[in-house]
Amino acid sequence: MEFPTSPLADGEVLVRIERIALTTNNMTYAVYGDSIGYWNLFPATQPGYGCMPAWGYAEIIESRVPEIPTGTRVFGYFPIATHLAMKPTAVTSRSFVDGAGHRTGTPKVYNLYEIQPQGPDPRMDSLISLFRALFITSYTAADYLRERHYFKAEQFVISSASSKTAYGIAHCLSDVPTPKIGLTSRRNKSFVEGLGCYDAVYVYEELTDIDPTKSTVYVDLSGDDTLHRRVHEHFRDRLAFDCLVGSTQSTSFPEQDEDLPGPDPVFFFAALQLDSYKAAGELRSFMQRYLRDERIFLERIADTRRPWMTLVEHSGLDDAPAVITGLHNGSTDPSGGHVFDLISR
Length: 345
Ligand SMILES: NC(=O)c1ccc[n+]([C@@H]2O[C@H](COP(=O)([O-])OP(=O)(O)OC[C@H]3O[C@@H](n4cnc5c(N)ncnc54)[C@H](OP(=O)(O)O)[C@@H]3O)[C@@H](O)[C@H]2O)c1
What we know:
InterPro entries: DUF2855, GroES-like_sf
Bound molecules: NADP nicotinamide-adenine-dinucleotide phosphate
Number of helices: 8
Organism: Rhodococcus opacus RKJ300 = JCM 13270
Protein name: DUF2855 domain-containing protein
Shape: globular
Helix content: 25-40%
Number of strands: 15
Low-confidence stretches: none
CATH topology of the largest domain: Quinone Oxidoreductase, Chain A, domain 1
Order of helices and strands: EHEEEEEEHEHEHEEHEEHHEHE
CATH architecture of the largest domain: Alpha-Beta Complex
Radius of gyration: 20 Å
């Protein structure tokens, strides 16, 4: 759909979006659109509609901000669209914040745009568009568990184990000897086994085959209320910690169930973790450590001899509705990563 554009005001820039990625995480932005405020970020012009956000790269093609010349490239959060007008504030040589009045309600990191000193690198840009928000979640979630001595767990159970965020967590815990058990759907079991980052893999129906006498940390990526109840009823007081990270199988914020045995779930939100690093002046040092480890992870992911994931490149946005339908109904092959190239048509 084409929308008319109005001329830029002083203090605004217009970006042309180069590349964005879509995974189930984007579906969760829609699911939590009202509760976390994602719908505020790119308001839809038509009532009853919302603009689903996506991570990617863009180039400033018009600028009325003296410190940001045209040709500047940025990484950040964009609508699934070709262009976006923004109002940069807090401009430094490394980043700016979109200070447009409607960009409220969500953690601050969603409004932060990183200026890219280098030109496009399609392969690496695709991998980062796909994984930056996911792997930073895996990484900070592993940090969060490490800082709490893994709740002295004897095993980790990770649901939606085929998701990129889940196997990122398993990867980040690879130096921890505690077994990492992946829980997945039957159709994705062989994919998850092939990753090699889980010590054992069970399908959801086999949950009760996992040893319930071991102290267990549950890392919940599925957000499925029924599975959640089954996990609590299986591990009961051996559930040392219940960490809600994702909602791949849910179309609403998971319900709080007061009557469950074991600890209450704790919602882990990477964006708030990053905001707290920023508030403490630690974001830069965190990012240095993170970027080094992200590079190692991405090389492993895309290792051509035995890739964990293959890039699926789409030209333009024509395929986006079909990709979104597949992500929404869970039929997407987890071995693919969908990226949309909006400029080389
Ligand atoms: N808390 C945070 O800060 C944070 C940050 C980033 C991401 N996340 C969350 O992490 C989750 C994973 O995101 P991702 O982008 O990594 O996922 P992904 O790589 O696209 O993985 C998709 C997997 O999710 C499951 N799934 C997806 N849709 C389904 C459906 N309709 N029915 C049944 N199963 C479905 C399947 O796994 P199985 O067959 O293995 O179940 C599927 O292979 C999302 O909910 C995302 O929002 C949270």
